[in-house]
Amino acid sequence: MTRPLIAWLSDSDPALRWQVERDLAGAPPAVWEATRSRIATEGFGAHLLELQDPDGQWAGGAFFPAGFDGSGEGQPWTATTPVLTLLREWGLDPAVLRERRTAELLAENSRWEYDSLPYWGGEVDCCINATTVENGLWLGADIGGIVDWFVEHRLPDGGWNCEWVEGSTRSSVHSTLNSLKALLAHEIATGGTEATRAARQSGEEYLLQRSLFRRLSTGEPIANWVARFSYPFRWFYDVLNAAEYFRDAACFEGTTPDPRMADAIELIRAARQPDGTWLQSRRHPGAVWFEVDVPAGEPSKWLTLSGTRVLCWWDEQRRTVP
After folding, report:
1. Same domain for 106 and 6?
2. How far is the C-alpha of 238 from the C-alpha of 291, rounded, in Å?
3. How far is CA 72 from CA 16, 285, 291, 315, in A?
4. 201 occurs within a structural domain
5. 23-27 long-range contacts, Cβ below 8 Å, gap at least 24?
6. Which of 17, 27, 106, 292 pairs as cysteine with 31 (C-beta 3.0–4.6 A)?
7. pTM exceeds cut of 0.70
8. CA 219 from centre of chain
9. Residue 49 falls within a domain, yes or no?
């Protein structure tokens, strides 16, 4: 990776910069940990922390802001769950929110828009439950019931689908990837159980059998959005988002990349511009507190971090395979 590209990436918010320092620039822990500590006091992270309600929520709601009636383009991203997810993914020290008693306040005050269910008990949507598991582990909440829910709601083909409540028996790549992220986070934090490890393995097989983006029936791409990369990823699937998961899982397990990912990796490589950047494909529609990345068509530092990190991992690991 070129020095100018590293310099361009490093000239960014602490939430992004510390990851560049750790994963791409090879900075010592003392350097990137110091940068990471600034998330709570400056930039994107500090701004979101300022917006937290006294009751522990953001925008007065669990997944949607208070008063949301479903109108407008896209879904809003201003409520509690999307905000917590960003703060966690950016690397905010959970002690900041634990000192605010955020987990306890959400247990007392926040209810899901679906049937007014208790926040840390989860609801019926796989993607919502997945981020709740990850956020709960991060904040020290009891999310054991939701983890068991994932084991119980795995579909016969090995994955998950948020539309199971409408009777769907075929898995979705979106739902499966988000469910896998939750199960991996649980396994990293607790070691998991035989049942959760088996569920995660079956979900990975669901995606790998499809090379992360192909239809099992025809071998054709599922849709053109599999290679359209957008940050924040939110709950949406694309091969870069999926490859980041498999990188995290392999680093945790100490394993080499599965060769069935090769075609997906080449889609990621093909999207890299001559200057080494990746372009923002689009912004997922919906209200936000503030923008954290560039408009569509411009070079994205977040996607360039992600794409470079994935390709460096893949190329390095594949070189070691006999």
Report:
1. no
2. 21
3. 30, 9, 18, 43
4. no
5. 23/305, 23/309, 23/312, 24/305, 24/308, 24/309, 24/312
6. 27
7. yes
8. 26
9. no
Q: What pLDDT sits at residue 17?
A: 98
Can you give the C-alpha Rg of the chain in angstroms?
19
Per-residue model confidence (pLDDT) at position 321: 55
Shared-domain flag, residues 158 and 97: yes
Residue 48 placed within a domain? no
DSSP 8-class letter at 121: G
Q: What is the pLDDT of residues 231-243, one digit of tens each?
A: 999 999 999 999 9
One domain for residues 141 and 214: no
Backbone angles phi, psi at 208, to 5 degrees: -70, -35
Which tokens hold the place of 82? 């999307």
Whether 181 and 216 map to the same domain: the answer is: no
Of the candidates 261, 266, 211, 213, the one whose C-alpha atom is nearest the C-alpha of residue 237 is 213
Domain count, the chain: 3
| Domain that residue 14 falls in | 1-41
Q: Quick one: which H or E segment has residue 278?
A: strand 278-279
Name which of 269, 169, 157 is nearest 209 in CA terms: 157
The residue among 230, 204, 206, 208 whose CA lies nearest residue 283 is: 230
